[in-house]
Amino acid sequence: MTIDSKRAPRGQGRETLLGAAQRLIARDGANAVTVRGVAREAGLSIPLISYYFAGRAGLIEEAFDAHVSRVETLAERVTTTGRRGIEAGLRAVFADRSHVLVRHELHIEAARSGIYGVPFHRSRSAMSRIVSAGLHASGHSTETRRTARGAMAELESIAMTTAVEHSDDGLYTAAMIAYLGVTFGDVRGPSGPASSSKKSASGTHLCP
Predict the structure, then answer these.
(1) Which PROSITE patterns match (predicted)?
(2) pLDDT higher than 70, residue 8
(3) Rounded-to-5 percentages of helix, strand, coil across the chain
């Protein structure tokens, strides 16, 4: 195939298009994403999308896969980088508004189509590992999967509610970092915010 306009530097076009697709999924929802819109957002040509992804469907699938792969990488790092890696993982998963919205869209698409079932479960598994590591590092009991799943469900609910309340990325991030600081305060060490004495039903600390 001949790509005759708006070439990306070698090796960068694919990642640029995936990033653009993820931004549009977060902003407009997966169903609203178009090939033309992604090309415009990326500043690249439409033929590049066909070249890398064979069309819109392939682009959306790979955008979700790249999102899940990032979560899996973060989950792997929490076992090798200690408390710093745990904090980075929690912030990336819950305090990045675009990341949360892409994950929400993945959940919706998984409910609609079987092709997204596998990435959905991969995402949930990786997130559970990150949350479990955070609970363990902050002194919470993680004897059962239910504990981590309950905490994860609660954090997901808080993240979505906060995304509705704060359309500004900066305000959203600040609010979620505050929640995470209270929930997993001990992960950040002595200089981090003190943990609240109020607990949720899942046993994790939540902001008042």
Answers:
(1) HTH_TETR_2
(2) no
(3) 70, 0, 25
In the chain, the domains with their CATH numbers are 13-188 (1.10.357.10)
Q: Which amino acid is at 79?
A: T
- Rg (C-alpha) for the chain, rounded Å, is 19
Q: Residue 205: helix, strand or coil by DSSP?
A: strand
What's the pTM value of the predicted model, to 2 decimals? Answer: 0.80
Both tokens of 49, joined, read: 């999308």
Q: Which of 178, 96, 176, 79 is nearest to 134 (CA)?
A: 79
Task: Residue 160: name the closest of 100, 108, 111, 207 by CA.
Answer: 100
How many H-runs (helices) and E-runs (strands) does the chain carry? 9, 0
pLDDT 10s digits, 84-118: 889 999 999 999 999 999 999 999 999 998 899 99
3-state secondary structure 95-162: CCHHHHHHHHHHHHHHHHCHHHHHHHHHHHHHHHHHHHHHHHHCCCCCCCHHHHHHHHHHHHHHHHHH
The mean-pLDDT minimum among 13-22, 98-107, 114-123, 136-145 falls in 136-145
The count of residues in the chain is: 208
